[in-house]
């Protein structure tokens, strides 16, 4: 009987890079799913995205951004009006407080501008390290790794780290990839988590990473069953990428809202 020797650090790094390359091919459409046109809008959208889908946030923000254009607008907001505008995103009282406090802090400490440094961003109300990395990567082009629930689950399934603390995960994964790739890598991992490698029933039999993933088999490996688990507008392309007949992907999967 042969036993497989444990993976070396070099072997893990090589596998991580291969995973990165496959994800680049699998999700050419990966991007920040929160609509925004500047750093303030992205900061606001990210605060609203707590416990809420990006799709719902994107439904709310056009009207919000048209009404509130500057940090001073949020600082001087009428609470009842702001609450009403963001109510569909849930936890709207807390989120309203965060937005007003964010506007005040930006006006008092940063001349109304969102700062482009992690150390400054994390001092702002409603902005933790994860949010700060989203803002840096997408509004300032500063590479950042975003460890959200999808990112955390996937890198653990891939055996790339055994860490459970988000900051330690960020450092462990950052060490495996070139810094310039961090932001897009984060988007692609999160895309894969939302569309293929779901928390409860990952679509293992329809996953482009099957050969590189030690957790293959966590979800159904039968292609027909797995194809039904794919989600999002490119669900049929994702099936085709692993040789599955795209017609096996039901229409509701294509139309499904990604979590
Ligand atoms: S093979 Fe399964 S567990 Fe591994 S990444 Fe793909 S869907 Fe996730």
Q: How does this model look, in words?
A:
- The protein has 259 residues and is an all-alpha fold.
- The chain has 14 helices and no strands.
- Helix 1 crosses helix 11 and helix 2 runs antiparallel to helix 8.
- The model has no long low-confidence stretch (mean pLDDT 95).
- Bound molecules: iron/sulfur cluster.
- Iron/sulfur cluster binds next to loops.
- One of its GO terms (molecular function) is class I DNA-(apurinic or apyrimidinic site) endonuclease activity.
- For the termini, the CA-CA separation is 43 Å
Along the chain, the helix and strand elements come as HHHHHHHHHHHHHH
Cofactors and ligands: iron/sulfur cluster
Strand content: under 5%
Largest sheet: none
Structural class: mainly alpha
Annotation field: number of helices: 14
List keywords for this structure.
mainly alpha; about 55% helix; endonuclease; binds iron/sulfur cluster; about 260 residues
Summary, kept brief:
It contains 14 helices and no strands. The protein has helices at about 10-25, 40-50, 55-65, 70-75, 80-85, 90-110, 120, 130-140, 150-155, 165-175, 180-195, 225, 235-240, 250-255.
């Amino acid at each position: 009987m042969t036993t497989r020797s444990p993976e070396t650090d070099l072997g893990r790094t090589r596998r991580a890079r291969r995973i990165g390359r496959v994800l680049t091919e699998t999700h050419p459409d990966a991007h920040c799913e929160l609509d925004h046109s500047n750093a303030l809008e992205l900061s606001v959208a990210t605060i609203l995205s707590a416990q809420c889908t990006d799709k719902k946030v994107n439904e709310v923000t056009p009207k919000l951004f048209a009404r509130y254009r500057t940090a001073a607008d949020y600082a001087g907001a009428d609470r009842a009006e702001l609450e009403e505008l963001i109510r569909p995103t849930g936890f709207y009282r807390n989120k309203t407080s965060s937005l007003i406090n964010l506007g005040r802090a930006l006006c008092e400490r940063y001349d109304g501008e969102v700062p482009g440094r992690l150390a400054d961003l994390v001092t702002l109300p409603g902005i933790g390290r994860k949010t700060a990395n989203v803002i840096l990567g997408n509004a300032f082009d500063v590479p950042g790794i975003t460890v959200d629930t999808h990112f955390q689950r996937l890198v653990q399934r891939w055996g790339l780290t055994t860490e459970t603390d988000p900051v330690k995960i960020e450092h462990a994964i950052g060490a495996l990839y070139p810094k310039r790739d961090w932001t897009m890598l984060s988007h692609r991992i999160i895309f894969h988590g939302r569309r293929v490698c779901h928390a409860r029933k990952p679509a293992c039999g329809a996953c482009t990473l099957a050969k590189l993933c030690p957790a293959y088999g966590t979800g159904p490996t039968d292609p027909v069953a797995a194809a039904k688990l794919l989600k999002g507008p490119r669900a049929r392309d994702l099936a085709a990428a692993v040789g599955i007949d795209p017609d096996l992907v039901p229409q509701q999967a294509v139309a499904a809202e990604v979590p």
